[in-house]
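C-alpha cells help. Our protein:
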Amino acid sequence: MTGIKLRSVYREDEAPRVLYRLLEERNEEINISHRAMPTWRAHLAFVRSKPYAAWYLLEQDKEFVGAIYLSKMDEIGIFVLRAHQGKGLGKKAIKALMKRHPRKRFLANINPRNTNSIGMFEGMGFCHIQNTYELVDGD
C-alpha cells in the first residue's frame, strides 16, 4: 500500500462521478451536509462553481478512495469511501493538505455523533471549540 496522493478535483475528468459516489455513501446520522441527495445536474453545477479554496480527490494505488477540501474559511472536510475507512488514509490526507496549504489555524466541522472523525481529528491535535445549533423552519 502506497501513500495517499492529492489530485485536484478540477484536473480530473472522473472527479464529478467520484464525488457523487461519495455523496451516495454519506450517512445522514453522522454527516453535516447534504440532507437530501442532489440531482446530478445540481451536483455538476456545484463542482463547477469551485466552492472551496482547495479540493482534491484522494488517490491510493491508482484508485480514488475519497475526497478532501479546504474551505475559504480554512475548514477541512474529508470523506473516505467505506471500503477504505479505518486504514489511516484520512489522517494522511489531512496532513498532506495542511502541508500543501499552510495556515496559522485549521478548523473541522464534525457532527457530534461522528465519533470516528472526532477521534481522528483529536488524535491529530485538534481541539473542540464550539457547538453549532440549527433551527429549520418547518412552517
